[in-house]
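Aim 2 progress. For Prepilin-type N-terminal cleavage/methylation domain-containing protein, the working sequence is reproduced below.
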Amino acid sequence: MKKMIIKSKNNGFTLVEMLLFMGIFMILLLVLTEIFTSSLDLQKETESTSEVQRDASFLINRLTYDISRSDSIIIPPAPGAITNNLQLSFNSINQTYQLNDNQLVITDNIGTDRLSSVNTSVSNLQFTRLGNQNGNNTISVDFTLTGRDIKKSGVEVKSYNFTVGVR
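Predicted structure tokens for this construct:
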């Protein structure tokens, strides 16, 4: 008689192999999820920091430009005076810079415009008139910018101080 040899094909996975695969796959998924959330946190922190820096750069440049080209400084009225708003005169048109709901706004004969971004808030705004009565007009500007996004390390807060003179 002939013996028949039956060869079985092993096409499946054992339970141990399947559990091992699922364990390694779960570890890989956890590592990838952690990397993804870390990169999102880093992106949020970077955006908050750059938003504050970008807004500060714009405000400093705008105030420097406007103060240096103004005809006269109306408020603060005299050397040594400290106010929380600034009024400049340009060709008989007055412009006022002040805080409105933690936003720096400019008001002139046309209307009111916001100068600071909605993603930052401005606080501790002070304008100090420097110099003497007959000298060149100079303004020292102090303000604090706070980012709206809360990062792991806290809210982005930066204080700025600069001085500008009228030409």
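The chain has one domain: 20-165. This observation will guide construct design in the next reporting period.
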